Amino acid sequence: MRERRTRTALGALAAAAVLSACAAEAFEATDLAAVPTDKVADEIFRAGDIDLIEHVRNRLTGDCMDRQGYPQLKRTGLSRQSRPFADMDVRPPLFATRTDEQAKLLGFGEHRRPEAASVLSYDRGFDKQFERCRHAAGRRLGPEFSEIQNQSYRLYNDVADERDALLKSPAEAAVTAAALRPLLACVEAGGFRRHIPGARTLDSFGIGVPTGRHEGTGPAEPKRVPGTVEVLPAVPERRYVPTAEESRLAVASARCARQTGFGEKTAAQRARVIRKVVAAHESEIARLRPRVAELANSATKLAGP
């Protein structure tokens, strides 16, 4: 979640600049070319640190709201979610990593992870107090909190946009097509038909194939009553159950991906692209990473035991 930059006293800014400079000197430089491409989120973007910082900010905000007579966040809304920037990590497409048995049991789907309870506000008093508490929590983390958070997400957005644009370029599109051709031919040889003649996507085999569903009850629908603060209950894990037709296509696709090396080819392409884009932001990354680490140290102290 992005935040506006807040004003800070000149003395505090000067002190923060000194701290950041010291942290940059003490923080071991990272050879970006040596970072494993399946660990880009943590090694380049410090995803674990950002997650910790935001979690501590949320805890401080919940404590503040509780003191002001709004206990909902502290009671239900402080569970840690998945780390940010996860799509920066390079891995083969999920369907291509599955065994025949896994593909049969899951098709092209995934089980849905449990979801924490969530708080929805339709109360202006809650909203105003939330903004005050959130900004107060950010100030406790440090005068650079908002700036560092904004820069981290801006860097992620820039890298993601440049990566996606490069993957769509004619040269990279040709690499993708070359990896797809033997995969699609293999699936077709297995007795499956492309429902759009000449289509060069795996999805073309799945058009009209009934898909599965997630078992169990999904998230509750909010009531949206003006003047209230609504707590939606937690949602347990929901297992995905594919149809028999989906499973058959998934097994064939996984088997063909192994035979043609599609997963490895795709991952190698994305690894090459992400390295190129990250290298273009090397100086920005080098400046930002020690500042995030310093802020994470502050968050750790505030989190306590």
Q: Quick summary of this structure?
A:
The chain is mainly alpha-helical and 305 residues long. It has helices spanning 10-26, 40-43, 47-67, 72-76, 94-97, 100-106, 124-141, 145-167, 170-189, 244-260, 262-280, 282-303; strands at residues 118-121, 213-214, 229-232, 240-241.
Please name the defining characteristics of this protein.
two-stranded antiparallel ribbon; 305 residues; Lipoprotein; 12 helices; mainly alpha; signal; 4% strand
How are the strands ordered across the major sheet?
1-3
Task: Give the termini distance in whole angstroms.
Answer: 26 Å
Report the total helices. 12
Counted beta strands: 4
Mean pLDDT: 88
Largest sheet composition: 2 strands, antiparallel
Structure class: mainly alpha
Radius of gyration using CA atoms only:
24 Å
Structure, explained:
This protein is mainly alpha-helical and 305 residues long. It has one domain (39-303). 58% of the residues lie in helices and 4% in strands. It has 12 helices and 4 strands; from the N terminus they run ααααααβαααβββααα. It has helices at residues 10-26, 40-43, 47-67, 72-76, 94-97, 100-106, 124-141, 145-167, 170-189, 244-260, 262-280, 282-303; strands at 118-121, 213-214, 229-232, 240-241. The strands form 2 sheets. A two-stranded antiparallel sheet has the order 1-3. The protein starts with 9 loop residues before the first helix and ends with a helix. This is Lipoprotein. It comes from Streptomyces spongiicola. Residues 1-23 form the signal peptide.
